[in-house]
Amino acid sequence: MLLSWIASAYLKFVCLTSRTVLRNVGDVPSLQLLREGRPGIFTFWQDRLLLVLQTISCGPIALMLNTHDRKDWLGSLCRAFGPEVFEISLSNGGRHSLVCLIDRLKSGRPVALSADGNTGPREESKAGPFILARETGAPLFPVDAKARWTITLKRGDERLLLPLPFNRIEVTFGAPVPLSRHQELSDLKEVKKLLKQSLDRLTQG
Questions:
Q1: Helices marked H in 21-143 — which ranges?
Q2: pTM of this prediction?
Q3: Cα dihedral sign for 83, 86, 38, 119?
Q4: What's the CA gap between 93 and 188, in Å, rounded?
Q5: Residue 124 burial (CB < 10 Å; 0-12/13-18/19+)?
Q6: Which of 10, 51, 128, 204 is 20 to 30 Å apart from 166, CA to CA?
Q7: Cα(first)–Cα(last) distance of the chain, in Å?
Q8: pLDDT of 184-205, one tens digit each?
Q9: Residues 167, 149: contact at Cβ < 8 Å?
Q10: Which of these, 94, 89, 82, lies nearest to 126 by C-alpha position?
């Protein structure tokens, strides 16, 4: 669709005219794992999606995306950068997409998804990243991004930070969140708290 083509062309122009700085926090080379296409779960706050899209697309990644419907421009925009995209909409739910991501992880590929989705509350972790890590044993990496100049796109409760051209964009990969395959769903509240703390530390760093 025309809107997604314009959006992808604009975002690629931003990437070409901007300086992107990559940082890795901790001893695990998470960015290298991503580039090599090795299994890992990369998660970020939903409003940073457009800031991290080019970087997380550097490897053969599968992206789970929260959209409003299957014709949503955001899904088409993300596909233009290369990821295999599994969309969750209000009409189809997220179980099938989670199963697909679990399959990709078990086959040795990295995946990405937002920690909080687009239905709110913002910057409150959902269960998706925990379920993926518990079912596969893959490491869960928090990712944050910030740019010197952005504007905020608003649609309902959803917020997306749109970087401007000739910018400085910084993407930070955090240390893996300490999880175990033996953790139960009853631990979900504590795990969501750990993930939020990890993302918040990157945001404030």
A1: 30-36, 49-56, 73-79, 95-106, 128-136
A2: 0.91
A3: positive
A4: 20
A5: middle
A6: 204
A7: 38
A8: 666 778 888 889 999 999 988 7
A9: yes
A10: 94
